[in-house]
Amino acid sequence: MSDxxxxxxxxxxxxxxxxxxxxxxxxxxxxxxxxVMKEHLHCRAEAGLFxxxxxxxxxxxxxxxxxxxxxxxxxxxxxxxxxxxxxxRQRYAMFLNDHGGIxxxxxxxxxxxxxxxxxxxxxxxxxxxxxxxxxxxxxKIEVLDTRALLALQGPSxxxxxxxxxGAVADMKFMDVALDVDLDGISAVMSxxxxxxxxxxxxxxxxxxxxxxxxxxxxxxxxxxxxLGARDSLRLEAGxxxxxxxxDEGTTPIEAGLGWAIQKVRRAGGARAGGFPGADVILSQxxxxxxxxxxxxxxxxxxxxxxxxQLYAHAEGGDVIxxxxxxxxxxxxxxxxxxxxxxxxxxxxxxTIYGDVRGKRLPAKVTAMPFVPANFKR
Amino acid sequence: MKxxxxxxxxxxxxxxVVVGITEHAAEQLxxxxxxxxxxxxxxxxxDDEVVVIESVKAxxxxxxxxxxxxxxxxxxxxxxxxKVNDDPLGDGWMFKIKPSDASQxxxxxxxxxxxxxxx
Lengths: 377, 119
Hints:
The complex is a heterodimer.
Chain A: H1 10-15, E1 19-23, E2 26-31, H2 36-45, E3 47-51, E4 56-62, H3 67-74, E5 89-96, E6 102-110, E7 115-119, H4 124-135, E8 139-143, E9 147-153, H5 157-164, E10 176-182, E11 185-190, E12 199-205, H6 206-217, E13 222-224, H7 227-236, H8 278-287, E14 291-298, E15 309-311, E16 319-329, E17 334-342, E18 351-356, E19 359-366
Parallel strand pairs in A: 3-13
Antiparallel strand pairs in A: 1-2, 3-9, 4-7, 4-8, 5-6, 6-7, 9-12, 10-11, 11-12, 14-17, 14-19, 15-16, 15-18, 16-17, 18-19
Chain B: E1 2-3, E2 8-13, E3 16-21, H1 23-29, E4 32-36, E5 43-44, E6 49-55, E7 59-63, E8 68-73, H2 76-79, H3 83-86, E9 95-99, H4 111-118
């Protein structure tokens, strides 16, 4: 795996006994000796520490020095209200292509005089080029490639971090903070994550990453969590994985992410449209899409994995959709999937059928999240 | 006890052979969340896919190690698939098969050979 990139925590993962796998061009821990199931349950019960340093951290600096100018520029690429985002607040967004397809999903934060952006590892080179191409007239794009990103997630995350800096507890869900002193280490933090639990994402200099990780792991509540449990946690929380549940061929409306398009960017809003694919997205928002992303609860215990074809009936008939993510939910105690189905079959409690190894097994369309979120709003 | 290159173990009990997966296989698969067992009375041929195992990672097939008739299956695994991880050589057994050609058993490894095989 010599051509893979590594994060600043690579040696520590190996010291902790992690099983390492290639992921988005990086050598990453898929699980530690605890195992995926126990890691998952531990994160929901106490606190799990994730290395997400493979993700892209980027700053958009307005050349004028005014946040509003950076916001105006970014709003040409994303369908969300960037201008109206409160100072030191974070929001979910997506880059779009001209057909309204999703190029990547990302987090953006108003840091007062700049915008802080976190993008997916697998898309980051394309995202950076995209921002440089479209924003460079009014903004400078700075790639923070010498910083690590950790996530501490779970009900005890706030307890643990408060021991390092008591002010952390005052942050609310989707708040961000600059220059947080974590026992001598300077961090940029957000109260957010990808597990459905309360928790924080913590950006630190690469050189500080191992020291901070060791400090956090020293607390009894904290265990390291690999990509395996990260996937089952986010799926239970109903959160999309880019490249699986959303991609260039899916729009935010089909994906059920219309909530991320604030009123001001919708038809009739003060800054309606003005983002790539706006005509497609706004008409889907008005008329309804032909297919939708739904949650599925298969009956029995067999998981319906990614790629499973979905049918309306136990026998015969055409394919009405397919599964984009599927796994066993350790907290849910059963299998769960998400996928796309024709809108006629997208209503909650609709029974549809997935082809699992040549047998059509029933599954019920279910509202997501599968496991209730535990955010501190 | 005998072992196959597919990481199954076989234990002879009178004229019946009990089959399960090895500790090594269970560890490699990770937490097992679903086991689909064959029907009792099925006549199977060596290398038929007889059991499906789903772990938190992926689905895997368990092949029939020998020709014969499925005499009994470990139904407990349907509701408690984690028994395969907890006790792969004991409570995690999968099915019992009545061999139609006992000489097929001669091909398999003993414990020492299997340990060498998995390195």
